[in-house]
Amino acid sequence: MKKIHITTLLLAAAVTLSGCSSAGSSSESVTVETAAASETADTSAVPETTEASSAKKYDYVHGTEGYYCILDEMPDFKLEIQEYGTCWLYAASASMRTAAFKETGKNYPVVPMELLDNIYGDDKEEGFFVKEGENEKEIGGWQWMVTEKLTSGFGGLTIDSSVILDQTDREAIKANLRERGAVAIGTHDTDESKKGRFGEYYTMNDTTSEDFDHDVTIIGYDDHFPKDYFYEPASEDGAWIVYNSALDSGTLYYISYCTDMQYAISHKATYKYSEVLSYDAGNEQDRYIKTGDSTKTANVFHKSGKLAAVGTYNDFDKQDIRIEIYDSGFNDLLYSQDAVLGYHGYHTVDLDTPVDVNDFAVVITYSKGAPVEGETIDYGATDYVTKAESGQSYVRISCTDGQVDDWKDLTDSGIKQFLNIDFEPGNCCIKALFAK
Predict the structure, then answer these.
(1) Which CATH architecture has domain 272-435?
(2) Total-model pTM
(3) CATH of the domain spanning 7-125+165-266
(4) What is the pLDDT of residues 234-259, one digit of tens each?
């Protein structure tokens, strides 16, 4: 089974993928270890829940205090069973579907296998490409890939935000569940000795594994779930209520608060934009540039329409930005607006007043650092490929020797030395979103 990896939180050398296979997976691949732990569990080792059982009687019923589950609000939420090694996409889909429901009250379909085609498809010049001989359905992936590719739109939907959460901050995850939607997260799925059953729920308490090989989706929590209801009793009460696409019946999980999980992220998608203009393949490995106390970068676009929002990444917990819209020659200022990027992740900032544009530049001044896509990276089974052309992305030069400040193209020779960085920056991570 391939391991999980969220690029923004790991170094390139630590890259692994999540992709636990389901019971319906293809058996043709021999390059991926398909433990399929949840579907093939030895139920003889699982405590029974009937009164006739010699095990304890499982008679716990949750109350309202310290309890929340998105399914109570969204009874039509579909517990889908994953195909092949695509747990990461089912988790992303669940996060997007619940967030859309919370915002609109509607159930929007987000098809995981369509996400796979969008992310790994060859009909693009940059992004993630599967190497020859690899099966895109089995190699797995990570949540940040979803953000990087799908913020440019897919089937009318656009990811307008991806919030990276501290997986150890329970209150932040709980608040996200209540206010925003489900949270995709990495966990372990190979050690059957850590699993049990409570009624219709599987349970897991695993404090020993460091093998984060599977993505699931946190959809709720119960602070009072008894610690001794786990096959191996936990050290404290409380559990996350989790949707696990690898289970053959779409059954839910209670995962103890004591279980170590990694790389929590929440996606939200919308139908409100008609088109996204973008040059970058993503903000892989939190790449950013700085030119002083603040950094001003720009993308120049050539399309007519009504600019409704601007998208960008934030590689810090919080930073202030200023958005300015110019003509393509950086001469006439058409619009300006201040904003705060309040979390680590991807942001869409709606303009207070949409702007009619033609050939135009989106300029963002960052108080801490300006995100860029970075270089092409070899990830083993996949390549992250970036391409930048002259006339697309710029950084503002602040001169101290009496010369006039000017814009420098990020494809110029010697840009690494000028910016004092050890990588080729590629394009700026600035997107222009048009109104419908």
Answers:
(1) Sandwich (2.60)
(2) 0.87
(3) 3.90.70
(4) 999 999 999 999 876 557 899 999 99
